[in-house]
Amino acid sequence: MQALTVQAPPAPVPPPLTKDDVDRGANVQYTISRSRKPKRLGWLRWQPRPSSAADLHIDLLVLGDSWADDVDMAYECWPTKLARSRGWSCLSSARGGNRSDHAEEQYERAVAHAEKAGLHLSPSTVCVVHLGGNDMLQALIFFGPIALLLLLVDVLATLGLFGQLHSLMRFSYFGLLRRRLCARLGHLVRLMEQRRHAVVLVSGLPICSQVPTGRLLLSLLLGTWAWGWLCPDFSSRLVAQTIDRLTQLVQRELFESLSSALPADSATTLVLFDEADAVRIIAAEHAALSEQPGQPSAAKRFWRDGHHPCEWVHGEIARAASAALETVATPAAATRPSSSNDGGMSVVQCALLNRRGLKHRTSDPCACVEPEAARARHRMPAQLQQLSEQYKDGTQQLRGEEEQGACVIS
Hints:
eight-stranded mixed sheet, globular, 8 strands, single chain, alpha/beta
């Protein structure tokens, strides 16, 4: 049954948009399903710069699924929060339920809307791509037992049944998923390179052992619902390690494929954002704080449902994504000549030179991620960092004393 497309204003503005946003020039198009339980999904949303609503330049273009669809979630998702934190304007064509094969359609819809509304899409527009999660979920629904059988092959391979697993098996669930994502997203990245976008941020799959739906599915496949009560710690670790191992392999091979999708002399900077790693870190920090009495964050819910986080988690993901863009110029600075003695190069051009140097010096699949962002991905709480440094210093001191024969054990 065809959905009804609504323009707001003049129609009632859906959350999270407010009357103040509309007064500043924001507007949204969304669809309402003609079912017993009508559901709203995003179609197009325009959010001008907070500092200048009259500026019609698009600073951030968002293509994505429900993790980027503000209308579907009824709160601002991390791409919108990223734009707000940087004072950018944002045009989003993200739509809940979309797969990677909807990427080009979303992009062309945004381009057509920009031309019709008089918005300016330029090479300095930063593109954010968040697609692929629904490819996995919908394949489980459409293919049913066949998909579960292929997923079981992945699980058995991870457990070492077919030898040590260094890469995804060709005819397995995650192997087929990886090939689909590499083809679809690789085509999108090349299209954006042809349209001369200077910066494209591609988010990896937000799938990790912290996602309740993933843990439930793997628990059913491994049968931990039947024997897990005998050794709950072991069964929990087994499920978590299996999920993380499989998703990390998908992430690595996807990033390797996207890194090679563009030529070395491309004018496009490809920033690969490991969103699953960000979710793992946020969840670990939240769990650590929850164990401490009196912490204000202890009572916060982390998950909105089985596979969507709450709004405050999106705020933390936006910070991690912002760190991935730290060394890339903002849209306002992209066309402004640098004041340093670099021959008049823009900040984006300097970032491109840095990216190409990294790409040529290493085969790391995350080589396109800027250095600060790569270090931020593996950050740890300040106390753990301090303890780790103290441990390293103490170990080095003991080794030095042993070499001199002066190590005394009391």
